[in-house]
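Posted in: Structural Biology > Protein-Ligand Complexes

Title: Requesting predicted complex, protoporphyrin IX containing FE in pocket

I'd be grateful if someone could produce the C-alpha cells for the following input. Sequence and ligand are given below.
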Amino acid sequence: MPDFPSEPQAVHSPTTRHAIFIVATLNPGAAAAETVRGWCADVAALTRTVGTRSPQQNLSCVCAFGSDAWDALFGQPRPASLHPFRVFGDGARVAVSTPGDLLLHIRADSMDLCFELATLLVNGLGDAVTVVDEVHGFRYFDRRAIIGFVDGTENPEGREAVDFTVIGDEDAEFSGGSYVLVQKYLHDMAGWNALTVENQEGIIGRHKLSNVELDDDIKPASSHSALTTLEENGQEVKILRDNMPFGRPGVGEFGTYFIGYARSPAPIEQMLENMFVGRPAGNYDRLLDYSRAVTGSLFFVPSAELLESLETRAAVAQVPQEAATSSSMT
Ligand code: HEM
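-- Reply #1 --
Done. Output follows.
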C-alpha cells in the first residue's frame, strides 16, 4: 500500500447536492502575491469555521493553483507535471484554454454553506485576485447531467480513488497533491432533445433511464464512455470526476461544469484528445456536436499540509533571489 506522508485536501469528499466553482486570476504586484500566500494558511480554518456549524452537510473546499501562478507565488521547487492547459481540437470543436491562476472547488449538501465559505474566502483574497468565472452547480435528480444521463457512475472509489488521484513517490516533494482540470460546457439542448433516446444512448454509451452500459457489440467506438476509457499495460486508468449541472433557463443557458482529478494531467489530457480529435483522429465524441467548451484550465492541488505551509515555503523559495541580490552587492 503506498505511503502518503501528506494528507490530501478534500479531493475525495463525497459527492454533494451543491458546489461552487471559482476561477480567479492573480493581480499584478508583490502585495497581491503576499496576500494570496498568507490566505493559503486560512483556507482550512475557514472551511472548519463554516462546516462545523452544520457537520451533516459535508462542506469541503479544494484550493488549487495554475502553472504561471505557481511560479509567481511560490517559485521553485514546482510540481513536476504542472503546465498551462493544453488546447485540443480545432475548428468548431476545441477544448479552449482560458485564464486561471486559482481554483476553489467548494462542495456541500446545502448552498448556504457553499455560499458562506465562498464569501469568506473571496473576501480574504480581496484585491489580490480577479474572479474570472464563478459557477453555482446543483445536483439534478438522481445524479443526472443536464443532458439527462446519470453522471459519475464509473468513478473510482475508496483505495482506488486515492491511487488514481494522489501523487506519491513519483514527485516526492509534492506527494499528497493532485492535478485538477476544469472546463465549463454549454449545451445545445434543443439539438440534443431533438435526437431520439436511442441516438443519445449511442453518443453516451449507456442506457438513459436505467444507466446500464450498452453491450460492447452495440456500443459505438465514438461513444463518450468508449473514448474516455483508457488502458495502460492492460489496466484501466481512471480519473475522479464530480461534474455539476448549472444553468439559467431564462436566458437559455444549460451547462455542465466538468471537473476531473488525477495523479497526473496525462490521463485527463488523453481523454480530451480522444474526445476532441478522436481515437483514431476523426472518430470524435458526438457529445461535442451538442456541447461547447467555453473555459479550460489546469491546476495543481497541494496536499492539505503543503497548502497550510505555503506562506513559509514562499519565503524559502525566495531565498535564492535574495541571496543572489546580496551576493551581487558584495
Ligand atoms: C460535456 C461535458 C460532459 C458530460 C455531460 C459528461 C457526461 C458523462 C456521462 C453521462 C457519463 C456516463 C456515466 C459515468 O459517469 O460513468 C460519463 C462518463 C465519463 N466521462 Fe464524461 N462528461 C462530460 C465531459 C467529460 C470530459 C471532458 C471528460 C474527460 C476529459 C470526461 C470523462 C469521463 C469518464 C472517464 C467517464 C467514464 C467512462 C467509463 O469508464 O465508462 N467526461 N460522462
